[in-house]
Amino acid sequence: MRLNKRFFPVYQPMLDNSESALVQNCIKENWISSKGKYIEKFEKSFSKKFGYRFSTAVSNGTVALHLALLALGIKKGDEVIIPSMTFVAVANAVTYVGAKPVFADIDLDNWTINPKDIIRKITKNTKALICVHIYGASCNLKKINKILKRKKIFLIEDCAEAIGSKYDNKYVGNFGDISTFSFYGNKTITTGEGGMVVTKNKKLDERIKLLKGQGLNKKNQYDYYNHTVIGYNYRMTNICAAIGLVQLKKLNQILSIKEKIFLRYKKNLKGVPINFQDQIRIKKSFNSNWLISILCKTKKIRNNLINFLSKNKIETRTLFIPMHKLDIYKSKVKLVNTEYIFDKGISLPSYPNLTFNDVDKICRVIKFFFKKINK
Known about the structure:
This protein is α/β, with parallel strands linked by helices and about 375 residues long. The protein has eleven helices and 14 strands. The strands form three sheets. It has a seven-stranded mixed sheet with strand order 1-9-8-5-4-2-3, with helices on both faces. Helix 1 packs antiparallel against helix 8 (about 240-270) and helix 3 (about 60-70) packs across helix 7 (about 200-210). About 50% of the residues are buried. The mean pLDDT is about 95.
């Protein structure tokens, strides 16, 4: 029996003619590559919006992490602590620079890296920690910074899923030595592919800019092709920046809509035998609700629910497979909370174009599933 006929994806961006107009302007002016007025405008608008001193636009969120590690001098033999509950790009970026990713557990109450486990994982080789603001939830930055400053360890904030999120009433990205963002098509705001690296340190910003542009030193116009370091082509295009500039103006609207969607799910699913995403919210924080997730009682129920929703044209996602469980990073480390959350978690359609009627339809299918299995 099919209860729903219309397809609901997990995510899709909120785009309209405003983005099209600026893209057409790029084409009209022949500035479509990595030079053009919209790149600098996007960077400056990004800094102004969130209170960052320096913002550098790059080609995606993964290279943003790579540049952050390179700028901080992380190298072979170093260790970087990361949560095992994250997207693989975090572990990959650490591996790119020759360092070793060290996997830490998460808190059950907010799914972000556990400060107590950070302490357990620190060794003489620990040079940095990447805290991931997972699914829009901010890490406990006060506790984390206290630990890291005492040990003189760098902090990188991965804000890929948390643009607009706050900790202690301040935007995430303002607490680390360097912070990174992603603007992939499924992120809260998008440039198609793209990312941003932010820092308050001028020397780090100069290093990031140098590395992202093939190591080209532009200070002397009579010696233009003077490449002073081995760099990378990690530049954002003017077209992507144009889209990002429009998307940034929509951010408050998108966040407001997504908060209403979150509350609608919460209201509709009250009484259903699941744990709702509420556990991710901590005091003095704001969750950008990148993906709205629920926890089922068992892995079997989760898998059956995924299949049932799929048959009813409702796309879902399991949570990120823990890094220490992937073949490429397999480790014997036991991370109880991470494994518990992964086995039971499922992310629901969470995009801003969902109407209340859409959410109600999705919730009716979920309720029917649990009614059926509890007979």
